[in-house]
Design brief:
Blueprint lengths: L4 H4 L5 H24 L10 E4 L4 H9 L4 E4 L10 E4 L6 H9 L5 E5 L12 H4 L1 E2 L3 E2 L2 E2 L8 H13 L5 E3 L14 H15 L2 H4 L12 E5 L1 H6 L2 H10 L4 E5 L19 E3 L2 E3 L7 H11 L3 E7 L16 H6 L14 H17 L5 E5 L5 E2 L3 E2 L4 H11 L5 H4 E2 L8 H6 L6 E2 L1 H26 L4 E7 L18 E5 L20 E9 L5 E9 L2 E2 L3 E8 L5 E8 L4 E4 L11 H12 L1
Parallel strand pairs: 1-2, 1-3, 3-4, 4-26, 6-20, 7-8, 8-9, 9-10, 10-13, 13-14, 14-19, 19-20
Antiparallel strand pairs: 5-23, 11-12, 15-16, 17-18, 21-22, 21-24, 24-25, 25-26
The structure holds zinc ion.
Zinc ion binds next to α14.
């Protein structure tokens, strides 16, 4: 129901009405005086229009002290000079549409859940915060047998399907002597042309701050850092038209590339033999210096199956085949439940990296996995997983209970044997359990570590495009993944690997402090805020800090200062929100 300020005042004490009348009169007189005395650009801001929703009345009360305010039932008739307030609720699809069409002169204050909508889309493009899918496919010349025509074909398809950038694995495979095919020339030309292949409307699509508008990524495997010096690597990137270097930094058991608390100096056991790590602790600092000079962005790559320390057998992911044989798993990959401490180590290395080198624009998780082999063998059946699964679902976690193996009973025995590798399926409980582990116990851990140091850093995940085989799902974007990097593309593929249908829903974070993003001053503020990603279109004014020290967007403003977003409704905590409200109300009155 649309209500006007006049009938809204019905229940108020008389004093308030009188003072409102007084204010209206003095405002009117002031407006006349202002019109006469100052240029139009300094005239009072237009009316404030509050869209109906929770606490719209409180906002009316707040802004009425300074501005003329009214309520609105919908967004169809917002005056061009108005300030619009979107209350703390999901937008409807119609409102999303109308919001996009508003003239650029309308200022917008968006609150809490209004960065999300009832149909799973996010108005990130307008607000500069929210959710948005970003993709950078990582193509492998060697995987394509150096069929460079195919390389270009896939890259063009990716650009048409809104992938923001493109990558190549790895430096070695771009060296002309690696192939009879024109690998170097094709990658260079694809990188050079990629931006011109993108659709116009996606050029300025929301992207993580720090990422290049069109990232062209040269991946550097650990062995590439052995073969190519840091300055030479940057020079090669420039020759290749790569504007971004992704470099493996965390495989400390074989090679340290910066001075870390995890650096190993002595001989150690690695995959059953004694080795001495091939350290070059100046490598990353020198690479960063050369990259800065050359305007090349640097991503730090964390290879998640190479933990800082050896995993014990009882910490490892147990495949269905291990479960059947009863043998200890050979694969070192830690289970996020039984081997959680190894993910803690990797998260700690991320924290350390961003503290030492804040110029890193992205952290990359390389192939975080709940293992699957060829759709015929699944993890994890370790003791920790068994216990938790049973508590949660009420029955035993065994391969027989959760994996369906096609039987082909009608086939003759020899034919049946040929099909022993036929694709298995898993039941919905196990699929949910695996996805939960990936999101809550892996992705979330890394996102929180990043946010303890530099919350606007992108988290990129390289993963084979068969995401779901590894416990991965598009919903991991809600847990802090910024960019999906599908790997091993062997042809222009199904758009489901890029452009997942948007389905974002708010998740919440309990904060204990408010932190001024400029001067780092902190005050107590206890609130539950909606989690949003911050994109290049906006900057933070205040962070909300959780008890573990991780920071989350609390109050942001677009660079053109047209839009503000506050991640919860500050009128619900009026006593603690003084500074926030002051900033918001001053901006409204400007
Ligand atoms: Zn497990």
């Amino acid at each position: 129901m649309t209500t006007t300020p006049l009938n809204q005042t019905a229940g108020r004490p008389a004093r308030s009405i009188a003072s409102r009348l007084g204010r209206l009169l003095s405002c009117a007189m002031l407006a006349m005086a202002v019109t006469a005395a100052v240029p139009a650009s300094e005239a009072l801001a237009g009316d404030v229009v509050i869209l109906n929703g929770p606490r719209a009345q409180s906002w009316h009360t707040e802004v009425s002290r300074q501005n003329k305010a009214r309520m609105a039932r919908d967004l169809s008739q917002i005056p061009a000079d108005a300030t619009l307030i979107l209350p703390d609720r999901l937008l409807t699809p119609a409102e999303l549409d109308q919001l996009q069409k508003l003239p650029a002169s309308v200022k917008i204050l968006a609150i809490g859940k209004s960065a999300y909508s009832t149909n799973g889309k996010s108005p990130a493009r307008t607000l500069g915060v929210g959710k948005h899918f970003q993709y950078i496919p990582l193509l492998y010349p060697a995987w394509l047998k150096y069929d460079m025509k195919k390389y270009e074909e896939i890259a063009r398809w990716a650009a048409q399907n809104n992938a923001q950038g493109i990558g190549v694995f790895s430096l070695t495979h771009t060296l002309p002597e690696r192939s009879e095919q024109p690998n170097f020339e094709v990658v260079r030309d694809v990188f050079g042309a990629y931006e011109s292949w993108k659709k116009k409307e996606t050029l300025d699509a929301p992207r993580s701050p720090g990422l290049k508008q069109t990232p062209t990524v040269l991946f550097m495997h650990k062995n590439d850092t052995v073969r190519t010096g840091p300055e030479d690597a940057v020079a090669w990137a420039k020759k290749l038209s790569a504007n971004t270097l992704s470099v493996e930094v965390s495989r400390v058991r074989t090679r340290g590339v910066y001075p870390s608390k995890f650096t190993q100096h002595e001989e150690l056991e690695y995959q059953g033999r004694m080795i001495k790590p091939e350290n070059d602790l100046d490598y990353l600092p020198r690479l960063l210096a050369a990259a800065k000079e050359a305007d090349v962005a640097v991503h730090a790559n964390i290879m998640t199956k190479h933990t800082m320390y050896t995993t014990r057998p009882d910490e490892r992911q147990v495949m269905a085949s291990d479960f059947a044989s009863g043998k200890d798993p050979e694969r070192e990959a830690p289970c996020p439940i039984s081997g959680a401490r190894h993910y803690d180590d990797m998260a700690a290395i991320v924290e350390e990296l961003l503290q030492l080198y804040p110029q890193l624009v992205a952290i990359e998780l390389d192939e975080p996995r709940i293992y699957n082999r060829n759709w015929t063998d699944w993890a994890c059946f370790c003791k920790g997983c068994q216990q938790l699964f049973k508590e949660r679902y009420g029955y035993d976690l065994t391969p027989a209970n959760v994996i369906d193996t096609p039987q082909f009973e009608d086939d003759e025995p020899d034919k049946r044997n040929n099909r022993k590798n036929a694709k298995q399926t898993i039941n919905s409980d196990f699929a949910q359990f695996r996805t939960w582990m990936m999101n809550e116990l892996i992705i979330e851990k890394f996102r929180r570590a990043i946010n303890r140091v530099k919350p606007d850093t992108a988290l990129i995940v390289w993963q084979p495009r068969t995401y779901e085989a590894f416990g991965f799902s598009p919903s991991s974007i809600l847990y802090g993944v910024s960019v999906f990097g599908p790997e091993y593309m062997d042809g222009p593929g199904s758009p489901r690997y890029l452009n997942h249908p948007d389905a974002f829903s708010p998740r919440f974070e309990r904060i204990a402090q408010i932190v001024n993003a400029q001067n780092n001053e902190k005050h107590e503020l206890s609130a539950e805020i909606a989690r949003v990603d911050l994109f290049h279109l906006a900057r933070p004014l205040f962070w909300g800090e959780a008890e573990d020290g991780s920071k989350w967007s609390l109050l942001t403003q677009t660079l053109d200062e047209r839009v503000m977003y506050v991640a919860f409704d500050p009128t619900t905590a009026r006593n603690e929100s003084g500074e926030l409200m002051k900033t918001i109300l001053e901006w409204i009155s400007r």
